[in-house]
Structure formats: C-alpha cells, structure tokens
What does this fold into?
Amino acid sequence: MRKSLSTFSRQLLQWFDLHQRTLPWRLNRNAPPGTRLNPYHVLVSEAMLQQTQVSTVIPYFHRFIERFPNLNSLADAHEQEVLRLWQGLGYYSRAKNLQLAAKKIVSDHAGQMPGKVDELLKLPGIGRYTAGAVSSIAFGQRVPILDGNVLRVLCRIDGIQDDPKNSPTQKLLWKRAEEILPRERVGDFNSALMELGALVCTARSPQCLVCPVSAHCQALADGMQDRIPLRRKAKSTPLVHRHTFCVRCGDRYLIEQRPAKGRWAGMWQFITIEADGDSSRLLQTPYSLRASVPRKIGVIEHALTHRRYQFEVFACEMKRAATPKGLERPSKWVTLAEMDQRPLPRPHVRMVELLNGELPS
Ligand code: SF4
It folds into this structure.
C-alpha cells in the first residue's frame, strides 16, 4: 500500500457510504445510526453467496427468509423443504449445513447466534471467511475476511504477484486483511472491500479511473492491474455421461431419491444411470421394468465447477405403476405437479420442462 492506512480506510468507507448496493441482507444506508444488522440474515446471505452471484441470490434470499424468518423456524423445518427452497442455487451441502448450524445454535446457544469467530467456527459449514464475515458485519468484531473479491483487491493494492492460491500467499493475505482493519466500522470496512472488488476492482477490467483508493494501489502504479492477481490456467473439466429415463404410467412418473451423501444428496430425480451401455436395454436389465422401448426425447447439459454432465433423456411407458426390482434407492410414482413440490437437481428441473413442452426437445 502506497499511502497511510487511515486514509485508505476513510476513502474506502466514504465511497461505500455513497455507492454500496441496496441488498436485502444489508441495512438500508438511511437506517438510524447504531442499528444492528440481523445476524441470521447475514448468515443466510453468506451461505447463499458462496460461489453464487448477488443477483442470483436475491430472490432466493427473499423466499427463504419469508418461509424461515428466524433460526428456530429453520431448525424445525423438514430438510426436504429447505432443499426445495435452495433448488437451483446449487452446492446443496450449504443448505444442509445451514440448517445443521441453526439446530446447533438453538440447542447450544439458546437460539442466539454467537458473535465470536471461534464459536462460529464450531458450527457446521462455517469456515474462516464466513465466521469473519458474520462476526464483523453482524457483531462489529474486529476480525478480517478474505474472499475472492478481497483477495483480488489486496493483491493489487500491495502489488502481490505470487499465486494467491499458494498457502504462504494466503497466509500473507489473511495477515494483511487483519493489519488494514480500522478501529471503527469494521463490518462496513470489510463489506466495502468486497463491494469494491465486486463493482470497481473487478477481475477482468478494473475501473481504476473511478477507484476511490487508486492513490494507494501498487498494481496501478506499476501498470500491473490487469496481470494481478496471477491467474492459473483453467483445467479442462471432465464430461460425465448419464442416461435418464422418464418412466410414465398414466399421468405419473417414476422418481428415485439420491443417496444422503454426495452430489445433490437427498434430492429426487428421474431414474438415472451411468451411460456405459445400450440405452434401450439398460432400463429393463437392472430394474426389471416392463416398460416400452425407451425413445430419446432430448439431451440436457449441465456444468459444475469441476465437471460437466450430459444427460441423454429417454421416455418410456408402463402399463402398471410397479415398484421396480433392483432399484435400491427410495422411489415414488408422482405427477409432474407433485414433482415440483420436491427438491430436484437443476438438470431434472429442466427435464420436467422438457416433458411439459417448455424446452425444445
Ligand atoms: S486502482 Fe485499479 S487495480 Fe487498484 S484497487 Fe483500484 S480498481 Fe483495483
């Protein structure tokens, strides 16, 4: 950093006061001084914002808070309902952990959210970043945060050219995030750093001309703002093939529940198997379903951070809604409208749309 810390935080906070976005989990900028944020809202927003953009999160946040307005209501909820409200946000372990954290706060802290980092770290799914964010933003504790936005801003301000994913650089960045904390308004300061990274000091085109802290920035002084932080070459993601069978009897479809652990844990889906054989025979052999010959109705592609999926989707009919032999997972026959009440992985939501004629086949 090229100038004094106190000027840096003052200029950053002045900018934040004028330019922060109005977000449902933030206090309105006209809120009376001394008003505290709702720690539960901060916790829910932080869980939802991991790996997910603000604009995507906002409608989910509203629906979630409307249904679960406090920790007790979330702790008491049926997990399937929590997953259903999370459907489409992805990374469903976040939803499960959020509910487990709510249960633990209710049982161990009489329903009052703890404000200290070491207590927050004992809650399921809460790592160092989330603990720091909740503790500083909701409770005003003087603790640092380091997420992708803060990391980028700090690397540029200090002109750090090492790979920020390396452990020694991470350590250094956490230390810097702590050193630059002001004495007051720590939560706002941390939020301001993230906001600066989201709105001005963006990954691809930092807007240095309008940056409130440009005078402090080493990367700008060195003309390195487009090359810091160092980017690793993106690895190619493996493509996984699946065959999905939309087995219908009358107006009902056969669905199965995914295992309690792993990707899309506990959610429901059409019968899906690894695509390593002849699709027309696969359905009858493993599950002994007396169904018509499957006909292909579409292909659904779905990309996650570390892998891509391709689902070939087949439709077939049965005369009798029998429980299939050999299907080890819980299964049900439901209408498409009833399916809509259950948590479904995003590709299967799109398959429902396909069956409803809402997607091109
Ligand atoms: S001057 Fe540019 S690179 Fe430096 S912090 Fe501001 S936006 Fe980021």
